């Protein structure tokens, strides 16, 4: 029996692993969480750009630091 990959995607990981293996990074639970963090960071930046809820627009280094959180999320 073949061991499951570190990011199981579905039952397809067994028989069709060679064909769908690369999708695991995008469609796994970890991939979903990375996408959620990216959306939340962009939402926060959108709110601050419009000075909503008492915020002020962020400087470019702060924006880059927030986006790095999403890019490096693991």
Q: Which structural class matches the secondary elements?
A: mainly alpha
Low-confidence stretches: none
Please give the alpha-carbon distance between the first and last residues.
29 Å
Tally of DSSP helical segments: 5
* Strand content range: under 5%
| Largest sheet: number of strands, sense, barrel closure | none
Instruction: Characterize the overall form.
Output: elongated
Spell out the helices and strands N to C: HHHHH
According to DSSP, the number of beta strands is 0
Radius of gyration, in angstroms, nearest whole number: 18 Å
Helix content: 55-70%
Whole-number mean pLDDT: 83
Précis, in short:
The protein has 5 helices and no strands. The chain is mostly helical and 74 residues long.
């Amino acid at each position: 029996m073949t061991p499951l990959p570190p990011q199981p995607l579905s039952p397809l990981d067994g028989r069709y692993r060679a064909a769908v293996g690369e999708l695991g990074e995008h469609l796994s639970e970890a991939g979903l969480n990375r996408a959620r963090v990216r959306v939340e960071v962009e939402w926060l930046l959108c709110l601050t750009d419009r000075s909503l809820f008492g915020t002020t627009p962020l400087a470019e280094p702060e924006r880059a630091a927030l986006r790095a959180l999403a890019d490096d999320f693991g």
